[in-house]
Design brief:
- By secondary structure, the protein is an alpha/beta fold.
- It folds into two domains: about 25-180 and about 335-370, Rossmann fold; about 190-330, Glycogen Phosphorylase B (Rossmann fold).
- It contains 13 helices and 16 strands.
- The protein has helices at about 5-20, 40-55, 70-75, 75-80, 110-115, 130-140, 160-165, 205-215, 230-240, 255-265, 305-315, 325-330, 340-370, and strands spanning about 25-30, 60-65, 85, 90, 90-95, 105-110, 125-130, 150-155, 170-175, 190-200, 225, 240-250, 265-270, 280-285, 290, 295-300.
- The strands form four sheets. The chain has a seven-stranded parallel beta sheet, with helices on both faces. A five-stranded parallel beta sheet has the order 11-10-12-13-16, with helices on both faces.
- Strand 10 (about 190-200), helix 8 (about 205-215) and strand 11 (about 225) form a beta-alpha-beta unit.
- Helix 1 runs antiparallel to helix 13 and helix 8 (about 205-215) packs across helix 11.
- The longest helix has about 35 residues, at about 340-370.
- The chain is elongated and about 90 Å long.
- The two termini are about 15 Å apart.
Length: about 375
């Protein structure tokens, strides 16, 4: 390909600056398909895209599934109606996606293969890391983000930002907090003494329910409900109606389901995750030291749960659950609101990334103009 003349280079750069100024570029988001199952991780991506659309930017969701189901059934039509394109299938491009220099593409941690494939794409590439455990599994052993020509990471908590900074000290790392859907809210109606169980491992419900009934046959009447794979409205109804929720997800780096249960006022027995994140910890009122929040009841060993649950059921049946316990479930209600998330999306994506991209173009333009004519 023939080298561009100085005038041609200036025209190209000015065209890209103009696209950013008039918002005629596109912000692409790579998404995975949960086949209709709710996912806080996926909801976070769609919330970001929708907010940027509301700010006047062109957005497009990219996927590679021939049988893509989408999010309409559980997240709502306004998200499902965002533009979608099938980018790759079997290694062949299905929809025409011309990534231009003024465009942006946000690639989640699980799509390291996409990061590698788009290494030389002219657009601005951004890594989205919601769970660095996935990143450890997906990224090649010797590759870094800068090897893949990615200089910006967006993550969802300050805890993960610190971890990522220790791994990638030369990256620009930004935080955009998640938000908990308002469908998860408390109710004044009386609750039923049923126990919700939320776990990615289906065997966990049996490891709790059966030993509980074996050890405490007097409580055979206590029912359990596994909340997995249901639409958000069904889950939120169960969290409001049933008195107790048990949550286990050791590998999580956030814990959407735990916060959803607390928002609904459910008494939460929570397995301590391997990595503690922002909301898990609070300062001790007397010492100031960080400790696990008392908004929920923590456990480390699943074998201890039947005894803990029996004690809670006994207290419930005697109507001696302290009011303070219910109040504690709402200690985190003001965290992770949609309003805060929208402000952070605008600040990070627009002020720190899009505006920076324009400045980069302007710096290159100045350098080209200062060069001698060819």
């Amino acid at each position: 390909m023939a080298e561009l003349t100085k005038k041609e280079m200036i025209d190209v750069i000015e065209k890209n600056i103009g696209k950013i100024d008039n918002k005629s570029f596109t912000i692409y988001f790579y998404v995975f398909d949960t086949k209709g199952n709710p996912s806080g991780t996926l909801e976070y991506i769609y919330q970001t895209a929708y907010t940027l659309k509301e700010l006047g930017y062109n957005v497009c969701m990219l996927h590679h599934d021939d049988d893509f189901v989408g999010v309409g059934e559980w997240l709502g039509e306004k998200y499902a109606e965002l533009p979608h394109k099938q980018h790759q299938s079997g290694g062949k491009q299905k929809d025409v996606v011309n990534l231009e220099a003024a465009d942006f593409i946000v690639i989640p941690d699980i799509f390291a293969n996409v990061m590698i494939a788009l290494k030389n794409a002219p657009c601005k590439k951004i890594a989205l890391v919601q769970n660095y455990n996935w990143l450890c599994e997906a990224m090649p052993m010797v590759a870094t983000f800068q090897d893949l020509k990615i200089n910006d990471i967006i993550t969802n908590t300050e805890t993960q930002k610190k971890i990522l900074e220790s791994y990638f000290p030369n990256m620009n790392i930004h935080v955009v907090s998640p938000s908990i859907n308002p469908v998860f809210r408390d109710s004044d109606k009386p609750r039923k003494l049923m126990v919700n169980v939320i776990s990615k491992d289906q065997s966990d419900i049996h490891r709790i329910m059966k030993p509980f009934h074996w050890k405490y046959p007097i409580y055979q009447w206590v029912s359990f409900a596994e909340l997995r794979g249901f639409p958000q409205d069904v889950v939120s109804d169960a969290l409001r109606e049933n008195a107790i929720t048990i949550w286990m997800d050791s590998k999580t780096n956030f814990g959407y389901s735990a916060l959803e249960a607390l928002r609904c006022g459910s008494i939460l027995l929570a397995k301590t995750p391997d990595t503690l994140t922002d909301w898990n910890l609070e300062a001790d009122e007397e010492t100031g030291e960080q400790r696990l929040t008392d908004a929920c009841i923590w456990f480390d060993n699943i074998d201890a749960v039947p005894d803990m649950l029996a004690s809670l059921v006994r207290t419930w049946t005697l109507d001696k659950i302290p009011e303070e316990l219910y109040q504690k479930t709402h200690k985190l209600d003001n965290l992770y609101t949609r309003e805060t998330q929208e402000k952070e999306i605008e600040h990070v994506y627009v002020k720190q990334i899009i505006d920076k991209r324009k400045k980069d173009f302007e710096e290159v333009l100045a350098q080209v103009k200062n060069k001698k004519n060819k």
